[in-house]
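Students often ask why we bother encoding 3D structure as a string. The short answer is that it lets us treat folding as translation between two languages. Here is a chain of 151 residues written in the first language.
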Amino acid sequence: MAERANPKGQCWPDEPQELLLCAALLRGEDALSAWGEWRSTVDPDSLDAGSKRLLPLLYRNLRELGVNDPLVPRLKESYRITWSLNQSVFRQMASLLGSLHGAGIETLVLKGGALVPLYYRDYGVRPMVDFDILVREERAETAMDLLTGLG
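And here it is in the second language, the structure alphabet:
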């Protein structure tokens, strides 16, 4: 890893987080190398919240790479839980979008709600607890009234 400043309060990953990102996102030997280094230097029971959010994505990559490690079943469980919880989030989002569209309100789905189906194409790799929908400013009050009425 290249040496770089990590000013306090900034969003740059530290070295273990960067290794985890590489293991989760890279392919082939680069991913395996990052995985091996991360695995040998990090205690999986002491992960920060941001790193824990990457475990389902890590699982998918390790599965595709054929990695056999005692930690893989735990990663698989993280993936399965994420997939299951996201099913509920996306069902709720689809229902709300249907209501908004039914009222003639155009929407734009943002962040994870758009990235999961269009980029990741796997509902198990990105933990989500909510979703973000953008509406035109002139329709915001109508949208809020509709959503409030739905509970």
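Translate back mentally: The two ends are 49 Å apart (CA to CA). Keep this in mind for the problem set.
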